[in-house]
Fold each of these.
Amino acid sequence: MQTFFSSLNDIERFTQSIGSQSSCACPHCQLSDQWVSHGYVYSQAGEITGKRLVCGRRYGKNGCGRTQQLYLNEVLPHRRYRLSVLMAFITRLIQGMAVRCAYHAALGHAIYEPRQAWRWLNALWARMPRWRTCLPSLNITVRRYRSWRLRLLLNALSAWLTGSDSTLLQEQLQQPFC
């Protein structure tokens, strides 16, 4: 099932047509005609970031009762910041900035401790094998960092970002970027 969409209107159209599509089966019970709209997903700031569907178990439906969330492609699921902030952080790292400076520049202010930047890098490191299997072998070198993990991660990310549009990454992968 498609998880990421370019606009809220696309999500609405998808949820209206989901009952007639046999390819949109529930990953748990494999039933395809039991989906019911279950409301919107909101960010901490109160913005709509997606929509929730439930595999219906009431009102004559035989689903399993589990939910599936559909997101806008600029939203990072279960993260506070959007994909554009993460991409700004990655771009500044590729350009050679230190992690602390890149974090503060991506957020636009320096009031927070940069330890969240290291959490972002750890989450990106965990996803790196998936990117490396999707990439052609490109020889791109970024600034030499002392950390070999950071050097490998930025090489993979720079190769990924040169080959695709960063705003459509999650929509192309149909998986969270981070």
Note: The longest strand covers residues 35-42.
Amino acid sequence: MPDGKPAGVPCVQLLPDRRCAIFGDPSRPAFCAGLKPAADMCGESRGQALAWLARLEAATAPGHAG
């Protein structure tokens, strides 16, 4: 996504099984490569991890007042 990924829009590289199609590829965006999982990000379930990512998307959306 050359102009970035809008908040709430799935990445074009997301496979049907929700894995990244370009994981480990040099063309992977720096933001993605720099996103390091941590206990607070992953939580104790898939739902908690997805909620954390949703908050990240909302906080980094254009026009977000911070």
Note: The chain has a mean pLDDT of 84.
Amino acid sequence: MKGLPKNNVFKTPEGYFDHLADNILEKKQKKTTQMHYIRWAAAAVLLIAFSLSIFKTFINPSSNLTNTYALDQEMELMIDQGDWYAEDILSLSDDPNAILDEIIEEEWGAYEISETELEQEIWIY
């Protein structure tokens, strides 16, 4: 401790407090304007992304139908050739029960069977 100089280490530069308030306000003003620009830029990006997603949906709604129709035809061809079986198609689906329900509705929808007739059919077999 004897070797350390006895200078005041807490000495401030001359004129520091004269311009301190102006410097603080200037920095705050810069940050505020930057935040406004960032908010406007983020809002613009979100608006553009939302607009493009909606625009994309309206541009090619028929292309999805065409692709689905071609895919259905290709699947039917592979089933007819014996390359694929019904289990293969159902394994590709997210909800195979919905597909089976649609097939049952298409095949048996025209028939009107009462609950009692249905119960008798079940008990017979």
Note: The radius of gyration is 37 Å.
Amino acid sequence: MQLTESSEMYLETILILSKKHEKVRSIDICEYMNFSKPSISRAVNTLKDGSYLEIAPDGGITLTEQGEKIAKKIYERHTILSKCLVFLGVDEETAVQDACKIEHDISDETFDAIKAYVNKFSSEKSEN
């Protein structure tokens, strides 16, 4: 199953929320993403059917190994791209918004090059 940008965003959101909350629930996702309960319910069920997440009897949502792998990849892209744009002089709010758009479409090759640049630039900056 090829994931859509929207599905990737849900997985990334669940990962972020799982770092903040002991248990992630649909309502947490609704509040974080500012989406309606029916939208979240449809997305969560689609991701569950695709084996990207599991829903416990008490409503707790956890990522499967496959879901977590994708979520971490998207989250890393978001973080690195945001840093890169800030390094280039973009204000942080705009950098975060733009990184969110870019993270889903960028090739692995281009992302790896940007990541290497950001890591090199970060280490050079911390040495000075």
Note: The chain has a mean pLDDT of 92.
